Structure formats: structure tokens, C-alpha cells
Amino acid sequence: MRISHRVPDLSALDLLLSVIELGSQGRAAQAHGISQPSVSSRIRYLEQLVGAPVLRRTSLGSVPTAAGEMVAALAREVLDAAQRLDAEITRIQDDRDGHVQVSASQTIVEYLLPGWLNELRTRSPRTAFTLDACNSRDAATAVATGGADLAFVEGPTLPPELESATVAHDELLVVAPLQHPWAQRTAITIEELGAGTLLHREAGSGARTAFEKAMQQHLPDWRPDPLIELSSTPAIKNAVASGLAPAVLSSLAVKRELMNGSLTVVDVSGLRMRRSLLAVWPTGQRLTGPARQLCAIAVKSRPAR
């Protein structure tokens, strides 16, 4: 449906009704917070579209002409419909802004996201959120395909269809049970680590992907040969602490165990696995509502390196 060029815009119709209701262009200007010449200009624009005067001046003020009465009657219907449209758009935005779907890697879910969500709840107590805890690959896929409004991943690389912002820095550590031979040494070599028996997260985990990339930079032909693959970081920590095998885990995930002495860090000469944790969303898409708020909270919470 194409609107004719003769149809005035809503502001001109609104001004006409105000002049008729208030009795003068001066009072209408004051009510709308604009100058009287601006009101006169909008009324002249309206009269040019109509092709006839819509107001006439009297000793008592401005009153509508016959054409003005007809335009005003229809304008009231148009403006009532516009107000209903505005109310419906507001409702749609409130529904959208009242809920956020988040997909995030398990490390971020367990050690960072609770604090961010708590601050979001403080700022926007009526906002509801749905959280899918998964590995980084699945979290990135969810936001790229529209299954999530925002995702938090561990990297280290992203597809071009996603934009990102750094929300935290992290380091991967080789951790071992206290009785493991590596725990008795000052350091091991990268070759020893590559040949060793390790517990791994599942393929697609951000920690595993970053570890594999770091190892292959030093040992291009190296490929992982895990003793066991587990999709749960707490399960891996428990398995390491029980003496099963060492593992490579986020420093965020093992902070408590390192403090209480149930696990120990194995230094690997020449190997540092620092990385950035990222908020991601589709390229070219602007974050809005609680997703934008949550991303801003996460970025603001980022500690200095």
C-alpha cells in the first residue's frame, strides 16, 4: 500500500488538533514546546496539502474552517490509531527486552556468569534469562544461528559471521595429582607433555581447542590421544585429584584446588597458554535490551591483565 503525497505527517495533524482544542497557535506552540512560527509553518504545510485553509482567525482566536473540521475529524482517528500502534510496539519491545537467551561455555557459566547475571538482575529485576551451558563451539553456533541472543566463548578463533568483545583473560594450566611424577619436578618439556597421558574435555571445548592450537605451534605433527574425554570440568578435576592422570584446565576452574593443595601446577618449559574469553554476537547485528546490558556488564567486569 502506497501512501499518497497528500497525506500529512502525524506531527502536522497533531498540531492542528492542538490549535483547535487550545484556541490559538501560540498556546499550541507552548504545549508542544516549539516556537509559534514553527506552528504557523506546519499549518501552512498542511493547508498546501489540503488545498484550502484549515484555520481562520477570529477575535476569540483560531477556529477551524469547514475543510479544517473535516481534516480534524479524520486526524483524530489517525492519531488514535497511531497511539495504539505505539502502544503495541512498546509491548513488543517490552517482551523482547524482558528476556535474554544466553549460551555460554561451561567454564564461563561456572566461574564468571553468575556474577554478571546477578548484576543484571540488580539493574533490571524483571528481566528473565535462559541459559544454555555447553562447550564453546556449540555456544558460538547457537548465537550464529539465532538460538541465542548472546554467547560467551573461550576462543581462540571465531568464524567471520561473529563479532566479539573481550570479557576476561585466562590461562590454561597443566595440573596433576600430588603423587604424579610430574608434580615432583621443577618443569617438564613440551615434548614430554605431548607424549604424556592426559584427561581431556570433549572436542569443541574452548580449553581443548586452545590447548591443541598451542601444542601444534610447537609440535606441528602432535595430535591429542586422551586417556578419557569428559564433558564436565568438575569431573575432570575430581579424576585428576584421584590420581588418574594430569589435565589441562582453566586457571579459573582450578583456583580453589590450587589454594587447598588438592592439585598442583606442572610448569612446562616454553609453553604459556594465555587466552581471552569473549562475548560474541552475529556480525552486523546490534545488541539490544538485556543482551546489550549483560555484555556491557561483562566487559566492565574484565580485570586488568
Textual characterization of the structure:
This protein is 46% helix and 21% strand. The chain contains twelve helices and eleven strands. The strands form three sheets. Strands 3, 4, 5, 6, 9, 10 and 11 form a seven-stranded mixed sheet that branches. The chain has a two-stranded antiparallel ribbon with strand order 1-2. Strand 1 and strand 2 form a beta hairpin. The mean pLDDT is 90.
Averaged pLDDT: 90
Radius of gyration: 32 Å
User: What is the succession of H and E elements?
Assistant: HHHEEHEHHEHEEHEHEHEHEEH
Number of domains: 2
Q: Tell me the structural class.
A: alpha/beta
Approximate strand percentage: 15-25%
Helix count, per DSSP?
A: 12
CATH class bucket of the largest domain: Alpha Beta
Largest sheet, strands/sense/barrel: 7 strands, mixed
Give the CATH architecture of the largest domain: 3-Layer(aba) Sandwich
CATH topology label of the largest domain: D-Maltodextrin-Binding Protein, domain 2
Spans of at least 5 consecutive residues whose pLDDT stays below 50 are none
N/C terminus separation = 57 Å
Write the layout of secondary structure elements.
Elements: H1 10-22, H2 25-32, H3 36-50, E1 55-58, E2 61-64, H4 66-97, E3 99-105, H5 106-111, H6 113-123, E4 128-134, H7 136-144, E5 150-153, E6 162-176, H8 190-195, E7 199-201, H9 206-218, E8 228-230, H10 233-241, E9 247-250, H11 255-260, E10 264-266, E11 273-282, H12 289-300
Parallel strand pairs: 3-4, 3-5, 7-8
Antiparallel strand pairs: 1-2, 5-11, 6-9, 6-10, 6-11
Helix pairs in contact: 1-2, 1-3, 1-4, 2-3, 6-12
